[in-house]
Amino acid sequence: MGLDLQNMKTSDFSYDLPKELIAQTPAEPRDSSRLMVLNKKTGEIAHRHFYDIVDFLNPEDCLVLNDSRVLPARLYGIKEGTGAKVEFLLLTHHSGNVWEVLTGPGRRAKKGTRFTFGGGLLKAEILDVTEDGNRIAKFTCDGNFYEILDQIGQMPLPHYIKAKLKDNERYQTVYSREVGSAAAPTAGLHFTKGLLEKIRSKGVGMAFVTLHVGLGTFRPVTAEKITDHKMHSEHYYMPQKAADIINRTRERGGRVICVGTTSCRTLETVAAKEGCVRESAGWTDIFIYPGFPFKAMDGLITNFHLPESTLIMLVSALAGYDHIMNAYRVAVREKYRFYSFGDAMLII
């Protein structure tokens, strides 16, 4: 079954997934999750565990990892004056304590309305309503905003995870540093500090970039033709140190392997035609789907993605549509665990 690159439909990227394969809790320990290894040239598949990944990496390779840290961005509060319940989800930081937020129910969050969270630890006023219905809110508090958020905020787990998270750190990578994501860069959740040390001791380079994951990651593609889909924007930063490691890897003939689609989108946003990268920061709305000419990435570590999502389109661009759709059929048959807390795939 081939794919018509000129007329790709969102429905081309659909597959049947039994609900019981959607992982509700993370694997323990992190690196015990299963790993499907997919050869992007032949489509050949091997079944391993994530801790075996070191066997597939060479000393001259480098991993590109997203060090973004998830905000406990879900807040439950009340409307001042009426006591009506409200839920806020922090999306994008504007300046100072001003944020773009998703509110529910929205009708309670008109311009000028005030809300209280955590029994008064945090307050917010709606400054404006955006075109797509989000709110611009200004927060006030006594003390450090982020410390109070740590006290009263909850992790913004995806809608398909119904189980309560016992430990917030399980929705963070062990190398997370830069606070700002509304969702975890989940491919990195499989790494333990010990496994990273093993990979380093093999001589594999590690380049840390930052891309703050937005909720657009989970938004379904509603356009019938995928070329009509408009991507959400996310903020990224490619430090010079990371750029140097990536460029040296390419010069030596090593492979650049991204950990997660967020690292991939950062790298391909900043890469020149010949694949070299340099320090850069900004917003990216890059949309990667079959036919995309990868400039800098050779391989990818990723999870199993939602049907008809931009992420399954991205992996299809790298490994080929037929190889990916077959790999997903195999994953369902072999009862791999899917989505954010699920198992992993290595595409090389």
Would you spell out the secondary-structure blueprint of this structure?
Layout (H helix, E strand, L loop, with lengths): L33 E5 L6 E5 L12 E5 L1 E3 L3 E6 L5 E11 L2 E7 L9 E4 L4 E8 L5 E6 L4 H8 L25 E4 L11 H9 L3 E7 L22 E5 L1 H13 L3 E4 L1 H10 L9 E5 L14 E5 L6 H10 L1 H13 L10 E4 L1
Parallel strand pairs: 1-17, 3-12, 3-14, 4-11, 14-16
Antiparallel strand pairs: 1-2, 5-6, 5-8, 6-7, 7-10, 8-9, 9-10, 12-13, 13-15, 16-17
Helix pairs in contact: 5-6
Walk me through this protein's architecture:
The protein has helices spanning 145-152, 193-201, 240-252, 261-270, 310-319, 321-333, and strands spanning 34-38, 45-49, 62-66, 68-70, 74-79, 85-95, 98-104, 114-117, 122-129, 135-140, 178-181, 205-211, 234-238, 256-259, 280-284, 299-303, 344-347. It is an alpha/beta fold. It folds into 2 domains: 10-70 and 167-347, QueA-like; 74-152, QueA-like (Thrombin, subunit H, Beta Barrel), CATH 2.40.10.240. The strands form 3 sheets. A 9-stranded mixed sheet has the order 2-1-17-16-14-3-12-13-15. A 6-stranded antiparallel barrel has the order 5-6-7-10-9-8. Strand 1 (34-38) and strand 2 form a beta hairpin. The longest helix has 13 residues, at 240-252. The mean pLDDT is 94.
